[in-house]
Amino acid sequence: MLIARLVPRSLLGRLTIVMVLGVLVAQLIANLIWAQQIRQQAEGEAAEAALHLGGSAAAAIRFFKSLPTNYRPLLIEQLREMGGTRFYVNVNSAPVPVTPIEDTELSHVVLETVRTKLREELPRLVDYRVAFAWPDGLPVSNDGVTLQDLPDDWVQHTLIVRPRPAPVLVIQAELESSGWVYLAALMPDPYFLDSANPITLDRVGLQLVTLLAVLLLSVSVVGWLTRPLAELAAAAKSFGQGARTEPVAESGSREFVQTARAFNAMQARIQRYIDDRERLFSSISHDLRTPITRLKLRTELLDDDAARADFHEDLDELELMVKGALQSVKDADIHENRTAVRLDLLLERLAADAKLAGHEVALAGGPVTVIAKPLALKRALSNLLDNAIKYGGRAEVLLSEQGDNVELTIRDYGPGVPDEALDTLFDPYVRLEHGRQSNQSGMGLGLGIARNIIHAHGGELLLTNHPDGGLVARVLLIGEAL
User: Fold this and answer.
1) For 364-396, how does the pLDDT look when each residue is reduced to its tens digit (9 = 90+)?
2) Distance from CA of residue 207 to its chain's centroid?
């Protein structure tokens, strides 16, 4: 799956993603809840303000309706000389066309509240118009006069025209058939529409700063927690590949200290076992060499030639078995430094040596470089190629690379191996009937040695039968282990 491939393989990467996603989801949910509360609060405050403004407008309309027609202009003139009231007021013969602003949830709440209030307060009102408009180019009378054409002292205490214009609530109500009163006013909060969008630039900036600080702290904490695990993994990998490593530092959290302590103890026990094994086989080599030599000398004293030959044959076989066991240990535990190895060139040299000996070997594959122990890897691949030639007559070698991973297949053209016997081929001294007939001098140790060396490189050696006959040895070297 695509998601599985995108997920980091390291614990640090996975914990970082979990922390980042957790913080992002928490921030998103908190912002949604907070934004919803802000909107509800803004709508409630705007509705309350619109209710009072609608009541004031209804009282003003009722007052102008009660005045004689010729008194209305005189009263308006006096109001302007006094500095105005809450409304800019004008009387027109017909409603003035007003271009409304873009409708929003908040402006819709205000307009509906004002209309409802007017209907409640003035049930006999024949016709009225309510709208929000921007002050720029706003007409105030039937003769085309706009807000900008009026003297500043008429509107400066009532409306905000500059430097930052605020939306104007325009209420027009019919007083009689040829008389309309024109009321223009601001909301108590002139810029109330800004509350409709709680996700403003400054708020988003603050959220981003907070989010960045939390993420940096989270990543630092995750890195601090996982760094000892990475060191432990590196030590385990190095030790598993045969290197002698220093004990892991027992510091950090209590759980990690316990893990490091257990790993160090396990490493020490395994190292002691390896050292004991080397000393044991060295002792065996030293102790058995002398009695075998003595027995060979004593067999020379036998008068019976046939018995002397039988004794020599048994002693030679015993000496060969001892040497084979020692060689198995030494070949699987070669102490050498890892370096860059051109695997294709190594295989070419092995194939060339086999061809000089008269064997048929086909090699295919491009250049591949791995980090390995050169001699150990050469012995493992040489054992596999020799087996394919000895027991299969000829060999085909295919080298391929997929990303960081390397796959090497060596196929022979022998009779193959019974499926139930495949798992036993790596056991010491195990030889099948076909192997004994093809190579009587073998000891059955080559495959075990090869697998131990490949395992020490972090790889795998798999044996399968080819559908068309013959045995296939697949060497898988994982990129991370190289």
Assistant:
1) 888 888 888 888 888 889 888 888 888 878 889
2) 23
Give the dihedral of Cα atoms 312, 314, 318, 319; nearest 10 deg: 20
Spatial CB neighbours of 259, under 8 Å, sequence gap ≥ 6: 232
* Distance between CA atoms of residues 94 and 1, nearest Å: 70
The identity of residue 432, as a single letter, is L
Dihedrals phi, psi of 41, to nearest 5 degrees: -65, -40
Pairing between β-strand 168-176 and β-strand 179-185 as defined by DSSP bridges: antiparallel
Structural tokens at position 403? 């990303």
Q: Can you give the pLDDT at residue 170? A: 92
pLDDT of residue 430: 59
Counting Cβ atoms within 10 Å, is residue 303 exposed (0-12), middle (13-18) or buried (19+)? exposed
Instruction: Tell me the torsion sign for CA atoms 333, 335, 337, 340.
Output: negative
Of residues 16, 61, 336, the one with CA closest to residue 172: 61
Distance CA 52, CA 59 (A): 11
Structural Rg of the chain based on CA atoms: 47
Q: How far apart are CA 47 and CA 391, in angstroms?
A: 95
How distant is the alpha carbon of residue 103 from its chain centre?
A: 43
Query: Whole-angstrom Cα distance, residue 321 to residue 327?
Result: 10
- Written as six digits, the tokens of 363 are 């090699």
Question: Which residue pairs from 314-317 have beta carbons closer than 8 angstroms and sit at least 24 positions apart in sequence?
Answer: none
What confidence score (pLDDT) does residue 117 get?
A: 92
Tokens of 482: 């190289």
In angstroms, the CA 29 to CA 35 distance is 10
What secondary structure does DSSP assign to 415-427, as a single string? ----GGGGGGTTS
Please tell me the total number of residues recorded for the chain in this structure: 482
Quote the pLDDT of residue 480.
Answer: 45
Which runs of consecutive H residues, i.e. helices, occur in 241-359? Answer: 254-299, 305-332, 343-356
Query: Number of C-alpha atoms within 13 angstroms, CB side, residue 4?
Result: 1
pLDDT at 482: 45
Residue 139 tokens read as 């007409």
What single DSSP character describes residue 428?
Answer: T
pLDDT along the chain (482 residues), means of 10: 65 73 80 80 86 90 87 82 76 90 88 92 88 89 85 73 83 88 88 70 76 79 76 76 74 79 83 70 64 74 75 70 59 65 90 87 88 85 87 87 86 82 69 52 67 83 86 79 44
Give the Cα separation of 367 and 428 in Å (integer).
34
